[in-house]
Amino acid sequence: MLGDNLPTPAQVVALYKSKNIGKLRLYNPDSGALQALQGSGIQVVLGTLNQDLQQLASTPSYATNWVATNVVPYAQSVNFSYINAGNEVIPGTLANYVYPAMQNLDSALQAANLDIPVTTSVSTEVLGVSYPPSQGAFSQTAGPIMAPIVSYLGKKQTPLLVNVYPYFAYSSDPENVKLDYALFTAQGVVVQDGSLGYNNLFDAIVDSTYSALEKAGQSNVEVVVSETGWPSSGGGNGATIENAKTYNNNVLTHVEGGTGTPKRPGKEIETYLFAMFNENQKPAGTEQNLGLFHPDMTEVYPVDFTS
């Protein structure tokens, strides 16, 4: 939504439906978007603003009011899949607020008789070790913060949301991270990790997170990929329309194919593509060019959502 030229919420919902997209993620409880989503049948991951985490954590009544304002009025007509307390704040100055904010939001939802899971969305910065995937572990900084969160998620049988970007791994180290491995186009195994072979970086990142969850004693917590994508321009290594088209179509085919990952075979991976639109109020460069669509709702490149 960080653009001054984007279509109206009603137009966006119509575009989702025309493209057979059944799920979306909102980064903040925008009332216009929530109103447009009423009766649409689209499943919604609803996020809190990062700057609200401290108050959500420290003041239960703030969480109660947040739920009363942003969830209760829409709960009968919008299909909320998760409430997402904060995005990519672990590790960091807001990290310690995430778990108590989750608890207060959960209590507020229960008090309102709403059965909506509460979780948080993390970047792979929470991992101190990510290679090879079997050695994945939370960092010394993130580990103490993640421990109660993933324990809570395990008890509630709620997934952890993780933002997974092979693009950034490739663009920051193109000599060592091969483009075909990042784009799902490698012919054969690229990384052999014990008995498991990896032919794409997406699976390796997801399985590194699963390894970290196992080491934290929470092997039953599932991973939802709450962001992934590839920029179509903006000057970064590999930021081309052709690569973006290849990545996003391949990731869709992969996650919907039900093959899962080497560590978790045979399971669809709930995955959200970032982002719907190119956003002109993002920082200049690749950040402005992660959209699947231009603000006029024409395709940046074709993506097949029908499979």
TrEMBL record:
Can you name one GO molecular function term for this protein? glucan endo-1,3-beta-D-glucosidase activity
Q: Which domain of life is it from?
A: Eukaryota
Biological processes annotated in GO:
carbohydrate metabolic process
- UniProt keyword annotations, A-Z: Glycosidase, Hydrolase
Q: Which Pfam families match?
A: Glyco_hydro_17
Q: Please give the family membership noted in the entry.
A: Belongs to the glycosyl hydrolase 17 family.
Instruction: Tell me the protein's name.
Output: Uncharacterized protein
Species whose genome carries this gene: Dioscorea zingiberensis
